[in-house]
Write a structure and sequence with these properties.
2 strands; 106 residues; 4% strand; two-stranded parallel ribbon; 4 helices; mainly alpha
């Protein structure tokens, strides 16, 4: 269902004029949560690795962060095994940390 190229057959340009970011994603999340507070909603669309790492590095974001994530299924089997969904199965430890943190998660 993700197409032959894994991206729904959307063609991604081979070249980009963007340089790599100097700030890590973990630090970007932490700084953004502190800067934007309730106006920020973090929407991780893959594994929970970076979110969990940000929460470990700065636990104070747990009470401020709002997360809307995708993963799991209620009425269908998982998409990587009968019981596992891809985003959660890529880093189940981080997913557990995120969901067990007490953060506002939808």
């Amino acid at each position: 269902f993700h197409g032959k190229n894994g991206l729904g057959n959307v063609e991604v340009p081979v070249k980009s004029d963007r340089a790599p970011e100097e700030k890590s994603a973990v630090d970007f999340i932490i700084e953004s949560v502190h800067a934007y507070g309730d106006d920020l909603v973090v929407v991780p669309t893959g594994a929970s690795t970076t979110i969990a790492a940000a929460m470990r590095k700065d636990p104070s974001i747990i009470e401020k962060i709002h997360i809307v994530t995708m993963g799991g299924s209620l009425t269908q089997p998982g998409n990587v095994s009968p019981f596992a969904e891809a985003n959660m199965s890529q880093d189940p430890v981080a997913s557990n940390e995120m969901f067990s943190s007490g953060a506002d998660i939808t």
